[in-house]
Amino acid sequence: MESPDPSYVSSPEVQPKRTSNPKSPTADDKEKPTHIRFLVSNAAAGSVIGKGGSTISDFQSQSGARIQLSRNHEFFPGTSDRIIMVSGGFNEIMHATELILSKLSSEVHVEDGDNVDPRSKVRLVVPNSSCGGIIGKGGATIKAFIEDSQAGIKISPQDQNYVGLNDRLVTLTGSLDEQTRAIFLILSKLTEDSHYSYSMNAPLSYGGSYNARNYGPNGNYGSNGSGGRFQNNKEDRSNSVTIGVADEHIGVVVGRGGRNIMEIGQASGARIKISDRGDFIFGTSDRKVTITGSQAAIDEAEAMIMEKIASASERET
User: Fold this and answer.
1) 186 and 290: one domain?
2) Phi, psi values for residue 27, rounded to 5°
3) How does strand 229-231 pair with strand 271-274?
4) Could you give the number of structural domains in the chain?
5) What pLDDT digit, counting tens, does each position of 222-265 carry?
6) Region (Disordered): which ranges (predicted)?
7) Sign of the dihedral defined by the CA atoms of residues 304, 308, 314, 317, in that order
8) Residues 236, 192 share a domain
């Protein structure tokens, strides 16, 4: 996968005819559970929810997708916007997303009448590790998406003000049809990334993981499968600890469909990231499990992970 540029900005300069479509998801990929996240203002979130939750319930019934929103005081870092996550099968997500964007577009037209700009913006939340696939080699993929959809596409630089924030914003500018097409193309690419599905289980709230102090590394880690640990020293605003977990125990930490890791993150308030397969702590066969947050959150998450591993080890003996 190509390393994402610090910032990639592009938009259609002319109106070329659509060339052959970029690869669409296979039938198997369309059936796999996946998700997409995007930002909405607090007022727009209320419009999506509807009176007594009537609108969001209707959208879920029509599409078959699940629609979740962060709480009204839980914003994406550096913004005053809430996060919407739509999850389910590929076609279900696309249907629900069209319903939501159409609703928001109609609300704007009601408020602003004929003065509304037909080219609006929607901001997707995408893991930094998945942005390289959207950009492609030499920007080839994102250029193809722009030509096909006619939407402007901008990928934000990784925000260095929020240590531990592993997500970036992908801004789509265009008409409703152009935005919908761009989302189709981007989600098609994301479904090819086997690690993208992990982010579906991350809490919608970003909590307070971005303002704690940091401390120096102690370098103490082991390869006994019980999770040796060492501390990272990246920035002064965040605690980050990496523990080593034997490859065969990673499944226990993640859980079926990511259930365990989601529960640990929600219960502790920490953010948990697991290294790719084959990416081990040097000199060991242990995968890296990085826990970021306050010291209390880290300690609680680590204890819960160790408990999962210990239970699994007992069952094996």
Assistant:
1) no
2) -60, -40
3) unpaired
4) 2
5) 333 334 444 444 433 457 888 888 888 888 888 888 888 888 88
6) 1-34
7) negative
8) no
- Same domain, residue pair 164 and 279: no
SS3 123: strand
Does residue 100 contact residue 66 with C-beta atoms inside 8 Å? Answer: no
Would 1 be classed as within a structural domain?
no
Q: Identify which of 204, 180, 202 has the alpha carbon closest to the alpha carbon of residue 91.
A: 180
Q: How many helices (H) and strands (E) does the chain have?
A: 10, 11
Name the one residue in this structure whose structure tokens are 């919908």.
180
- Tell me, what's the pLDDT at 300? 85
- Pair (72, 145) in one structural domain: yes
Same domain, 58 and 141: yes
Question: Are both 124 and 176 inside the same structural domain?
Answer: yes
Shared domain check, 250 and 187: no
101 in the Ramachandran plot: left (φ > 0), alpha (ψ -120 to 50) or beta?
alpha
Say what percent of the chain tops pLDDT 70.
71
Ramachandran angles phi, psi of 306, nearest 5°: -60, -35
Query: How long is the chain?
Result: 317
Share of the chain above pLDDT 90, in %: 30
Distances (CA, A) of 150 to 46, 53, 127, 228, 252: 29, 34, 24, 50, 44
Residues 6+ apart with CB under 8 A from 226: 306, 309, 310, 313
Residue 28 has pLDDT above 70, yes or no: no
Residue ranges making up the domain that contains 266: 229-316
Query: What are the start-end ranges of the E strands in 117-265?
Result: 120-127, 152-155, 167-174, 229-231, 239-246
Q: What are phi and psi of 218, to 5 degrees?
A: -115, -10
